Structure formats: structure tokens, C-alpha cells
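hey so u asked for the seq, here:
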Amino acid sequence: MNTMLNAAEMLAVLAAGVAAGAINAVVGSGTLVTFPVLLSLGYPPVVANVSNTVGLVPGSFSGAYAYRRDLAGHGRLLARLGVASVLGGITGGVLLLRLPPGAFRAIVPALIGLALVLVLVQPQLARALARRRQGPADAPPPADGEVRRVGPLLLLGVFATGVYGGYFGAAQGVLLLGLLGVLLSTDLRWVNGVKNVLAGLVNGVAAIMFIALGTVAWQPALLIAVGSVVGGLVGGRWGRRLPPAALRAAIVVVGLAALVNLLA
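ran it, C-alpha cells below
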């Protein structure tokens, strides 16, 4: 395993952190950028995942900060959903640390495959949410930005997504966007801000566990942290100007690269 990166490798990790932070702020799946880079530098899969999670925490919160005006006044709702996310993140982190490394190597290709499918079907998901927002032709349109009651099904879904995020996390944001868009609000801009907060909480609690109990490669983790803060702010402010098709294509390419690396 690499212990010290050279200048070119450091730049590659930093650039991957910027890209991942921006992607996470816009939709999620930034792990599919940084994780393959760490694998390509020789880090074992579990160490790469732990270090990646630790590094992406600051970027998650910088992305959430960019949506602070959209989220003002929703503190109680965020607290309820946040508890479910934190509990899920703890559960996923425990699974990662307790299960043998061989289990992670066996499970993660399937998780990456699921993440890639979610990224690819995101346009269809967005269209389905748009149709749901319009409703039947004879029904009055829902109030713009209407927020529904937080029910048991939503809390369970947020918890399950937190488990997934604490264990691996790629496309956690896509899962949350679909879940929150269906069960909480059709205002996708607002939902994206909520997604950033919840994903940040999951990554944060998992990172605390990994620092205390896991093996963190600190050099790449810190480089990803610096890059993800910049990327999170950029993505949260200007991410919607990026061509969605190009963004999805890039995520799929790096995700396939990670699959090839893990299965080789």
C-alpha cells in the first residue's frame, strides 16, 4: 500500500476531490470519482473507502451550506430526518468495520453496479417526479414547495439509505433525491438541499467511527477534504449549469473503471 504520494498523485487526488464535492452537491455519486482514484494508487478497498468517506465530509457540509437559504425554517424537520440518517450511518459504518475485508470486496461491485444504474435512470426518475407534480388533469396542482408530513415510511427509507451510505455511499444522493422527492416534497431544489444535509450527517458519523476504529490514509483523505470543500461550494452554486448528460457519462466511466479494478 502506498504511504506517501508523489506530486502528480497528489494533484490527481485533489482534482478528484474537487469533482466529487461538486457532483455530491448537485446529485450525489462523487464517491465514484474518488474511490477509483484511491484504488488505482494501490490502497486496499476498505482503506480506500474509509479514507474517501473521511475526506468527503467537509465537502458534504459545504454543499449543504450553499443551500442554507432554501432550508431556513425547517430545523425541526431536518432534526427528525437527521436522527434517522445518523442511526443508519452508524449501522453501515459498524457493518463495514465488523465484516471481513473479503466481504467488502465481494459486496462493493454490486453496490457500484446499483449506483451506476441509479445514475443512468435518474432522467426517468426526474420525469416521473415531474408527472407526479402535475397530478391528474382534473386535480389542483400541489402548492409550490409544499412539504408533506414526515411519516414512518420516509423515516425508514432515510435510515436504510443511511446504512447504505455508511457502508459505501456511492449514489447515496441519488437514492435520497428519489425518496425525498416522492415522500416529502416535489420542490427538487429544496429537496437537494435536504439531501446534502442528510448525506453530510451520514458521512460525518461514519467518518468519526472510521477515525476512531478504522485505518485512515490521511494524506489522500486530507487532499480529498480540501478539494471537496471547493467542489461542494462550486457545485452548490453553479452545478446546475453543467450538462447533465456529460455529468452522468463521466460518473459511469469512473464507476466502470472502479468495477474493472475491483474485479481484475
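Confidence is low (pLDDT under 50) at residues 137-144. Residues 64 and 196 are 5 Å apart (CA to CA).
lmk if thats what u needed
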